[in-house]
């Protein structure tokens, strides 16, 4: 009994020392573990760069270039997350002729971690969308689109957790109200749930129950509200408590840097969006803040 | 000794396990413009190339010529007249071919569904894809005259849209003088309305189409009908030169 306990303690202490050895005891140092989030939105089937005489984006964009850039950034950075905020489909004849298959195949090849469904993903109907999703090897995250009872049932996931080093990242996907935007026949049977309420519930669940230390929303609401639609990324950021970052889309907004918004708990939520057509790849960097060791708990155990 | 070991153990474990959780913090951001300084990924470029070739072969074909620049604007423009008129002709032919009951026929299109201007000069297939990127079908609806008036009411309230085969005045928020083929539209009579499946299913708030007593879907896409109409004009040596009259009068 006595020797058993001694043996047990020896093992624990040895284990403890072994575990603690690589770390600085003043706080685990993860400063060499930055998280790099790369993102696109509203690429709209722009497989090729714009023409050289395009008035706004001459010779900009293109999937083949994006693949090169992503590969380069993957080689340079330790933990890379690659995300898209929807409207992959529609905008060039490639979509008319090939129905979105090349877009999804190339994104799979670039190893996208996740995307969400934008309003234009419905353009050729849900049957077409369900069919095309077979070409994507990354998940489509839809938290407030309930496809139950439709052909899209089971083709999307309401949330997804991705671990990159010390980061446990919960991802949600927030879709825009399709009424007046998507042909009613093309979203028949799909239930659109309130983005703020559903987003908050799921984000909270990911933080509290799933112990994520970062929650990202892929949102296709658009940065600002419109006359017809009150929901927006700004509203989503301000009226929730557990979303750290919104990767936005739909409004085709070229944001020079992320907008920081105080959420309902007074914490900062960031929103970023990189225009459209894949002319820019966005990058957001996170680091881990060092925490100070807490001795209170140790004293409690000793008592 | 044992007690010391215990304390050491708890201190070590405490240091390891009881630190505040590491919180990710936003640090910085940057943007990467996708410009020509970035070389193509050869594997993806090799996959796009054949797609590009086949698309270009189709898209670069010149199918006709436009006499002037044509713009898609509210309430209605020569461009919306052009598309609405050609769809009216196509619908009439289809009705004849299928032996449907002949009724007065009207065409309605949404101006916002015409996505770009048509330039003066040579027109390619690509121009028409830009004008009409969506895969919309033409559908035929049978509506009562009363519901046609309600349809016009919505068109008036929403600032106009493309119309063919009919005309009306929108004055003080009311539809007046609604006519088709020179005849007043009667509440009790029935009429055909040809439109896109998008509007027919209630798109752009055209919910009145849900009141249709009959619906028939044409086999043709609207874009294909536009392309074949322009080809037919070219065959006759004619330019794209649409009617400039106003079908909706706003007073």
UniProtKB/TrEMBL annotation, chain A:
Family, similarity comment: Belongs to the 5'-nucleotidase family.
InterPro entries: 5'-Nucleotdase_CS, 5_nucleotidase/apyrase, Calcineurin-like_PHP, Metallo-depent_PP-like
Keyword Hydrolase attributed: yes
GO terms for MF: hydrolase activity, acting on ester bonds; metal ion binding; nucleotide binding
CDD domains reported for this sequence: MPP_UshA_N_like
Annotated Calcineurin-like phosphoesterase domain residues: 35-253
UniProt keyword terms in alphabetical order: Hydrolase, Nucleotide-binding
Protein name: Metallophosphatase
Organism phylogeny: Bacteria, Pseudomonadati, Bacteroidota, Bacteroidia, Marinilabiliales
Keyword Hydrolase: yes
Gene Ontology process terms (BP): nucleotide catabolic process
Pfam family, one: Metallophos
Automatic annotation (TrEMBL), chain B:
Entry's Gene Ontology molecular function annotations: hydrolase activity
Any one Gene Ontology cellular component term annotated for this protein: outer membrane-bounded periplasmic space
Entry-linked Pfam families: 5_nucleotid_C
GO BP: nucleotide catabolic process
Record domain 5'-Nucleotidase C-terminal: where: 74-210
Highest rank taxon of the organism: Bacteria
Protein name: 5'-Nucleotidase C-terminal domain-containing protein
Biological source species: Marinilabilia rubra
């Amino acid at each position: 009994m006595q020797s058993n306990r001694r043996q047990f303690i020896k093992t624990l202490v040895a284990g403890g020392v072994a575990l603690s050895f690589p770390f600085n005891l003043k706080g685990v140092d993860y400063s060499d573990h930055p998280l790099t989030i790369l993102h696109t939105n509203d690429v709209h089937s722009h497989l090729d760069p714009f023409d050289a005489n395009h008035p706004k984006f001459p010779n900009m964009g293109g999937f083949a270039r994006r693949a090169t850039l992503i590969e380069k950034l993957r080689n340079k950075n330790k933990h890379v997350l690659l995300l898209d905020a929807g409207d992959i489909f529609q905008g060039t004849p490639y979509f008319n002729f090939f129905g979105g298959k090349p877009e999804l195949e190339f994104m799979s090849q670039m190893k996208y971690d996740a995307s969400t469904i934008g309003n234009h993903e419905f353009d050729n109907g849900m049957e077409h969308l369900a069919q095309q999703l077979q070409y994507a090897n990354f998940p489509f995250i839809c938290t407030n689109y309930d496809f139950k009872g439709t052909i899209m049932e089971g083709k999307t996931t309401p949330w997804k957790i991705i671990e990159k080093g010390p980061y446990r990242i919960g991802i949600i996907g927030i879709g825009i109200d399709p009424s007046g935007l998507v042909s009613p026949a093309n979203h028949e049977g799909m239930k659109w749930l309130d983005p703020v309420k559903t987003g908050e519930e799921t984000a909270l669940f990911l933080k509290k129950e799933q112990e994520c230390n970062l929650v990202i929303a892929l949102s296709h609401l658009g940065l600002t509200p419109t006359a017809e639609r009150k929901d927006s990324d700004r509203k989503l950021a301000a009226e929730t408590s557990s979303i750290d970052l919104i990767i936005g889309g739909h409004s085709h907004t070229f944001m020079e840097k992320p907008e920081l918004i105080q959420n309902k708990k007074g914490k900062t939520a960031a929103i970023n969006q990189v225009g459209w057509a894949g002319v820019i790849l966005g990058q957001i960097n996170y680091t881990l803040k060092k925490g100070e060791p807490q001795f209170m708990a140790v004293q409690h155990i000793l008592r | 000794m044992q007690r010391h070991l215990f304390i050491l153990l708890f201190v070590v474990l405490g240091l390891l396990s009881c630190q505040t959780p590491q919180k990710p913090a936003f640090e910085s951001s940057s943007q990467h413009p996708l410009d020509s300084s970035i070389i193509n990924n050869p594997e993806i470029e090799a996959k796009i190339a054949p797609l590009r070739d086949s698309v270009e072969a189709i898209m670069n074909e010149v199918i006709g010529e436009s006499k002037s620049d044509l713009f898609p604007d509210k309430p209605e423009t020569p461009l919306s007249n052009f598309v609405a008129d050609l769809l009216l002709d196509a619908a009439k032919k289809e009705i004849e071919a299928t032996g449907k009951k002949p009724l007065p026929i009207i065409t309605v299109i949404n101006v916002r569904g015409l996505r770009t201007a048509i330039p003066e000069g040579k027109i390619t297939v690509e121009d028409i894809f830009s004008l009409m990127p969506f895969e919309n079908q033409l559908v035929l609806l049978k509506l009562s005259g009363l519901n046609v008036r309600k349809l016009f009411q919505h068109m008036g309230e929403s600032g106009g849209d493309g119309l063919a085969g009919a005309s009306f005045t929108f004055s003080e928020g009311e539809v007046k003088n609604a006519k088709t083929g020179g005849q007043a539209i009667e509440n009790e009579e029935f009429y055909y309305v040809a439109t896109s499946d998008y509007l027919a299913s209630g798109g752009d708030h055209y919910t009145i189409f849900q009141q249709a007593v009959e619906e028939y879907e044409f086999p043709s896409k609207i874009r294909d009908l536009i392309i074949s109409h322009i080809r037919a004009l070219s065959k006759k040596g004619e330019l794209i030169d649409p009617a400039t009259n106003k079908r909706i009068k706003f007073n």
